[in-house]
User: Fold these one by one.
Assistant:
Number 1:
Amino acid sequence: MRNKDFESQHASLHPLAQLDRRGFVTTALVAGFAAATLPVHAAVITTDAAGLDAGEIKIPVRDGSLPAYAAKPAGGKNLPIVIVIQEIFGVHEHIRDVCRRFAKLGAYAIAPELFARQGNPATVADMPGLMRDIVAKVPDAQVMADLDETVQFARRNGGRGKVGITGFCWGGRITWLYAAHSSEVAAGVAWYGRLVGQGNDLQPKNPIDLVGGLQAPVLGQYGGRDGGIPVESVETLRAAIAKEGSAAAKKSELIVYPEAQHGFFADYRPSYRAEDAIPAFARACDWMRSNGVALQKP
């Protein structure tokens, strides 16, 4: 559900919102689910927008504006902030629904489309092409800067409380990176993202390289049957945190759900596993609460 008053209000709050969008391939979100994820699984969860201000917005950044989705309690002020980081499929309906779930708990939840300069992942059905032509071309430095702008935008629009960040798959890795990058973050929840590996010019470091500088504790949630993020990499990170982690890192927690696959929270995909996803989301919310992100109880 799109709230035009909400969109109009947000678009007018900053002069940069009207900047020319040259250099941005994606200037608006695609309705529904990403092409690469179709058909949608029968377990898909739909959270309504009743009682919320929710819809697509534009976040002013240094070189234009990012399309994004935001949801918050209608008329809400001084709210905790939850930044929701996309999977490789962009800010499609599942990510928007996650924003509404957090908004129902009293948060200002916002999901920026972090691939906007490189392409529109929601329209690409070819997974290898999606990874090669869009995801691999997104610099970490660009993402960190865009998230900084996203936090400041949220603060100008009713989000005054502490900041939580959560991300899935590609966004799981970004959650760890941003918890090391920003002193604004109070708590992170990372879901099945890459933890170790060789860096490159655009993505030079992985979570294991940053444990010494982590500024906020992160709850990492992983699948025991995840072929892409093996349990061995989780244990490697756990050992690195114990050996050389910062104080915040040592407060972090890594959980492996033995029977879960990659994407076990993604209710629109066959990988969804309700018996793990439901308690994992409750645990994520409790984690944020315990670290000062004042989410309401359901």
Number 2:
Amino acid sequence: MKDHKDAIKLVLDALIDKKHGVISDMSEISAVGHRVVHGGEKYSKSVLIDDEVLKAIDECTKLAPLHNPPNIIGINACKALMPNTPMVAVFDTAFHQTIPDYAYMYALPYELYKKYGIRKYGFHGTSHRYVSKIALDLLGKKDSKIITCHLGNGASVAAVKDGKSVDTSMGFTPLDGLAMGTRCGSLDPAVVTFLIKDAGYSADEVDNIMNKKSGVYGISGVSSDFRDIEKAADEGNKNAKLALEMFAYRVKCTIGSYTAAMGGVDAIVFTAGLGENSAEMRERICNGLEFLGVEIDKKKNAVRGKVAEISKDNSKTKVYVIPTNEELMIARDTKAIVENK
């Protein structure tokens, strides 16, 4: 596959393959939903794609240079192959547009925000929206304070009050917040200038280190896959153990800070690859949160990849495992928008 257009054509060819396909021809596809990473401040919900929307996505390329260009290629490829089929953009940033200004602003000169749009945007919004809605249903009340933990190779935590995002750990880019598979997460910004001015690294080299050589991979020296790191830690690898402890510590601290931001917490949700499947990591994070009313049931916690309450029956704060389903959210948004256009 030489590019995204080539890849999408192969996918669509597979859909209409006479032997194994699920549709007979392209006319059976009534709509296409596209996950778009960055919608900037303009979009707080999913939208029908037109020339204006495409232009806005392109304008956000400077904020997401690795993601938005391929998103545009995918949209254009589908438009070329299905010119009369409606397309919908579902933005990763949209759910977090309800975060208040005092939480999304950085204490830089205000003109940098006005000129360059430098602020917290947050990501994984489609996932946080999906699992928080299910948690709301499980709690059975709308006025609730939920902390959603999307934990995997990319990881973020969101504070969701009354169904709306009020803070999240990723920032101007997906590099901020938690330590991740290969991303460093939050650090003293002076580290960047030190590496450039004193250690002799170029800006591109530092960017590469922070995004691709850091996180639990950089600390453990083993892998960016938490399964490999957990195995190495069990075998006595001290750096692997340190990487797991650092990751859990940052998640725990973020849960604590978001509890303070919302004035309490009713439920904590674990989702995504690590959050859904690692009972060990969930236990690491929840140990020490008893002061928030969190009590984990070890037997209930021995669950993988399905909706489950893992807190004790008398736990003041509910703890859930909820598998995410971003594709379903994209499909639902697409269906709703196309039917109401």
Number 3:
Amino acid sequence: MLDNTLNTLLIVDDAVENLTVLDALLRPHYQIRVATSGEKALRIAVSEPRPDLILMDVMMPGMDGYQVFDYLRADPATRDIPVIFVTAMDSPEAELRGLDAGAVDYITKPLVPSIVLARVRTQLELKQARDWLSNKNAFLEAEVARRMLENEITQEVSIRALAHLAETRDPETGNHILRTQGYVRELALRLRDHPRFSDTLNERYIDLLHRSAPLHDIGKVGIPDVILLKPGPLTPEEWQVMKTHAKLGAEAIEQAERDAARPVEFLRLAKEIAHWHHERWDGSGYPDGLVGEAIPISARLMAVADVFDALISPRVYKPEMSLDLARDMIMQERGQHFDPDVADAFLSGFDAFIDIAGRYRDAA
């Protein structure tokens, strides 16, 4: 039920006698504010207490009712206030013009008190319903946003947990997943305006890429410790087993995709990265020997990120390499191991990659 005591009406009319009549009729039921000109009405409409409904004369000197209405609709602070035109112009054309302009109702003079009260009450009830729906929608939108953020946080934590699970099998990698995640995002940002990449590297793709990158080596959980942790060069047979981690990771993620009730976009990228980040631009990589553009963009970016971090990080089978020497190695492999444009993006932004490496440096 409508609580009239909470509703404020603004009556706009240049004739004092008309204001007096409407004020006497409506004040017992509502809070009333009055304006004798269009200019004053606009000032009152944006001041407290804001009107819930405006009853406005059409024919006024200076700014007429239609002009006032246009100004009200142009201002975000007043555009949702319903307006009833109250006028002596009783022709169908005049009424149609008022309703076409956007007024919620059109009352002609001489006024019939019961009709005025009924129409005012109806419009206030409609406004209350619209406001309730608007508030409800705002609440629902906020709730949806909150739950989406909660889901994204849960998803990110789960991804990190899986990635760290892989790291527990290979403890010397330390902050490798954080560094490679940072490198991949930096590469994507540097390439997003490049003609070869702009159609793919939009904001959504880069976010998904950043989120899925930590799973690139998840397949290592399937490699025996005797091979994964061997403190020296692998035999040809052991190397063949080691290379299966790419396919193992992709298969694990694919199984997760099948278990999901609906497609999960970031899993598609995670699977691409896990499966093909060891492919080489010249086709000499593994597991499928893909060549050039056949290698997904996500995997091409991770290839540079993963190799750079491997070069500058100590491993059980090698010492770390200097940053300058690692940069030179990436340069030498441009067009062979790496997509030339991806390598160029890395080389041109080398200082940014040094910063990421330093930010997530492993503890001594």
